[in-house]
């Protein structure tokens, strides 16, 4: 990349993306625009701030290395490519059991989910622990986790998620609805007290 001391006009986003292939200043503008979004996505998926920072750095390192060959022409093409890289990096990190356990331990320290999050994600204002949410989320398939996370943690629209996953928008809508139903069912299972089996008692048997 070359250095430039003149900021690029943000009037033409396509020009900025094109310039970012070879110009450090243009790439810096894209970084400034998208890093907060990517870091927020990483933070919600990975919980631990230091881990989120490391993964976000890895994501933008891959972007910096690959941007010369990036085939897109506009900022939406860049967004799609960026979040595809981010999703792959996050999922790769979470495939290790020990890392999922670390996530749950960190989530346990976060306490209750606030009403804004529970209303948008769970369609309920019921007080739920973050740990329970992440445990339920981890019981879904990787694809289901990805769709839910891109929608509610990254804030992408259905059409943008479809572009990231290279599927139709209608497919995303159906998959998201089903994934949320499964998430709520898993969450209900984890938060509903289990009744003792018929014929058993919590205190055990006493001798007469």
- CATH class descriptor of the largest domain: Mainly Alpha
End-to-end distance: 85 Å
Under the CATH scheme, the architecture of the largest domain is Orthogonal Bundle
**Backbone structural class:** mainly alpha
* Total number of domains: 2
Which geometry do the CA atoms define?
Answer: globular
Helix content: 55-70%
Topology of this protein?
Elements (H helix, E strand, L loop, with lengths): L12 H7 L4 H23 L2 H18 L8 H20 L2 H12 L6 H8 L7 H9 L3 H11 L5 H8 L3 H23 L17
Helix pairs in contact: 2-3, 2-4, 3-4, 4-9, 5-7, 7-10, 8-10, 9-10
Characterize the structure shown:
By secondary structure, the protein is mostly helical. The chain starts with 12 loop residues before the first helix and ends in a 17-residue tail after the last helix. It is 67% helix and 0% strand. The protein has 2 domains: 95 residues, Rna Polymerase Sigma Factor, Chain: A; 82 residues, Winged helix-like DNA-binding domain superfamily/Winged helix DNA-binding domain (Arc Repressor Mutant, subunit A), CATH 1.10.10.10. The protein is globular.
């Amino acid at each position: 990349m070359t250095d430039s001391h003149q900021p690029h006009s943000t009037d033409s986003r396509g020009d900025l993306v094109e310039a970012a292939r070879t110009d450090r200043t243009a790439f810096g503008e894209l970084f400034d625009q998208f890093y907060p979004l990517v870091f927020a996505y990483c933070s919600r998926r990975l919980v631990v701030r230091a881990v989120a920072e490391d993964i976000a750095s890895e994501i933008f390192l891959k972007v910096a290395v690959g941007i010369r060959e990036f085939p897109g022409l506009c900022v939406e093409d860049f967004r799609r490519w960026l979040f595809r890289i981010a999703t792959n990096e996050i999922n790769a990190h979470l495939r290790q059991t020990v890392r999922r356990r670390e996530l749950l331990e960190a989530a346990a320290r976060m306490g209750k989910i606030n009403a804004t999050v529970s209303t948008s994600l769970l369609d309920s204002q019921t007080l739920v622990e973050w740990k329970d949410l992440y445990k339920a989320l981890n019981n879904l398939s990787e694809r289901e986790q990805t769709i839910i996370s891109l929608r509610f943690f990254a804030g992408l629209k259905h059409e943008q998620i479809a572009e990231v996953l290279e599927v139709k928008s209608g497919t995303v809508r159906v998959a998201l609805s089903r994934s949320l139903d499964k998430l709520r069912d898993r969450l209900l299972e984890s938060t509903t007290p289990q009744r003792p089996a018929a014929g058993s008692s919590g205190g055990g048997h006493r001798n007469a």
